[in-house]
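Data deposition worksheet. Section B asks for the primary sequence of the deposited chain exactly as it was used as input, without tags or linkers unless they were present during the calculation. Section C holds the resulting structure in C-alpha cell form. Section D is free text for depositor observations; keep each observation to a single sentence. Incomplete worksheets are returned to the depositor.
Section A, Depositor: J.P.
Section B:
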Amino acid sequence: MMNKLAIIAVILVTSIACKTPEARKPVSVKTGSFINASVERNKKLNNKEYAKIEALIATDTSNTYFTSNTGFWYYYNAKAADSINKMPDFGDVVNYSYKLRDLKGNFIYPVDNFKNINYTIDKEELFTGLREGLKLMKTGETVTFLFPSHKAYGYYGDENKIGTNISLICEVTLNTITKLEDQ
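Section C:
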C-alpha cells in the first residue's frame, strides 16, 4: 500500500511540474514617448540653429548664398572661371584646405591647422557637411559653407575644441582632384 501511494505521489508531482511553458507577460508597455520627445527636441534645436544661420545670412549683403539640397548654405569666395573643370565623383582623391569658425566668426583651430588634406570621396570618414560640400566644388574654388550642427559634429562635437550642437562656418579651398580613372 505504501508503495502504491509513493507511485501515485510521484505521478501527481510530475504531472503538476510538467506544465507547458507560458509566454512571459510584459512588465511595462513602451509607447514611444521617449522617441517622440527626442524628435521634438531635435526639431526645436534645428529651428533655433537655422534661425541663427539665416540671421547671419541676412546681415551679409556682400555674398550670394546658395542652399544645398541636403541642409546647409554656402557662397563662393573664388569660383572656377572655366566650365571644363569637373566636380569630384565617388572614389576621386581631392586635396583641400579649410578653416573652421563658429557663427560669431571666431577661429576654432589655428588657421593653418587643416592644410593640404587628401580625401577619397565617400570612401573615408569626414563630417557630413564637408563630405557633401566637397562634391559641389571644382579645382581652384574657395567656398564658405555654413553648417548646422547636424551637418557638422552634432551632439558629440569633435571631443576636442568643438562642443555639443555647434554650427560651423567652414571656408574650403579645393586644390586638386585626381579622377579615379587617373589613379
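Section D:
The mean pLDDT is 88.
The beta strands are 66-67, 73-78, 93-101, 114-120, 142-147, 168-178.
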